[in-house]
Each structure stands twice: as C-alpha cells, then as structure tokens.
Amino acid sequence: MDSLQPYILPLKGLGDGLHEFDFLVDHDFFRAFPDCPVEEGKVELKVTMDKRPRLLVLDFSFTGWVKSTCDRCLVPINLPITGENRLLVKYGEAEDTVDDEDVVYIPLETSKWSLAQYAYEYVLLGLPIIQVYACEEDENPPCDFDTLDRLEGTGDDEAEENPSNPFRDAFKDWNKE
C-alpha cells in the first residue's frame, strides 16, 4: 500500500461544515519523500477542515518527535516538535494578482485531494533551526556529559590535557581594537 494513501481526502462525499482527520506521520511517511532530512519520527497530525461551497480551510496541528542529532553534544535525540498552520484551498483558476503560498487552487471537479505534501512541509517547518531541547528535564537525559564539560571548559583535568600552546597564548590577550 502506498504510504501516502491515507492523506488523500475525499472531497465529493463530504458535506459542508467541519470535518476532522487524524494522521500518524512516521518513518514510512518520511521515506516517501526523496532527500527528506528526517529519517525517523512519530508525529500526531490533526487536520480540521472547514468545507465551504468554493473554499476549504484546513487547520493543521501536530505534536511529536523526530530523530535528530543534538547540536550541543552530538548524541542521537528524539527532538520534540509542535506546530500549527493554516492552508486555504480554493476551487477554480489561480488569480494572477494573488501570490500567497498559503492559498492553493484546485479544479472545481476535484473529487479527491492529497494533503501529504503540505503535511510534510509543515512538519519540516516545525523543526527548530538549532536542534536541542531541555533534556535536563528527562529522567535519563541522553546527553554526552564529557563533551558538554569540554565545551564549557569545566573539565577537572583540563589543564593537564591542554598544555600551554604558544599560538593560543599569543591570542589570549589580543585586543581587537
């Protein structure tokens, strides 16, 4: 079965009004997109669709985690992500004067429509630029404390491991002005 099949919404059979859809975005979903920066994750996606005669208003909200590498200590982590986005889908031809990436135009006779590409983009937009989280709150944090100690310069035997370096010592007292 195609891993993106569940993300196809049946538009013709739905009446006007609010409709809710729940999806689980996981590794099968991410693998369906070439060159995806996310290989593994588990994200619960909720889509609320307000269907109107010539317009669909889709509200995406998601929460979950994706497998990543911590930018602080370089260990694999389950990076928590959350997000909310809105997408407007209008029936008809695209208007030349409107250039809004949050508005999509589909033909009036469309009976099924896939929201997989938009779900994918919104989840990726939910990824933080700096991939760290408050892992100190975890019962067993995944941190590499040796690396963190070296970065912070709080290692007990730092002076023994880093003997005097004439190049570093020359720049130590250098005035940038």
How is the topology of this model organized?
Elements: E1 8-10, E2 17-25, H1 27-31, E3 41-52, E4 55-69, E5 76-91, E6 103-106, E7 112-114, H2 116-125, H3 145-152, H4 158-161, H5 166-172
Parallel strand pairs: 5-6
Antiparallel strand pairs: 1-7, 2-3, 3-4, 4-5
Please give a structural write-up:
Strand 3 and strand 4 form a beta hairpin. The N and C termini lie far apart (65 Å). This protein is of the alpha+beta class. It has five helices and seven strands. It is 19% helix and 35% strand. The strands form two sheets. The protein has a five-stranded mixed beta sheet. It has helices at residues 27-31, 116-125, 145-152, 158-161, 166-172, and strands at 8-10, 17-25, 41-52, 55-69, 76-91, 103-106, 112-114. The protein has one domain (5-134). The chain is elongated, with a radius of gyration of 24 Å.
Key terms for this structure?
177 residues, alpha+beta, five-stranded mixed β-sheet, two-stranded antiparallel ribbon, 5 helices, 7 strands, elongated
Average of the residue pLDDT scores = 86
Parts with pLDDT < 50 across at least 5 consecutive residues: none
Structural class: alpha+beta
Could you give the order of the helices and strands?
A: EEHEEEEEHHHH
Report helical residue fraction: 10-25%
**In terms of quaternary structure, what is this?**
single chain
The major sheet is characterized as: 5 strands, mixed
Give the termini separation: 65 Å
Q: Label the overall shape.
A: elongated
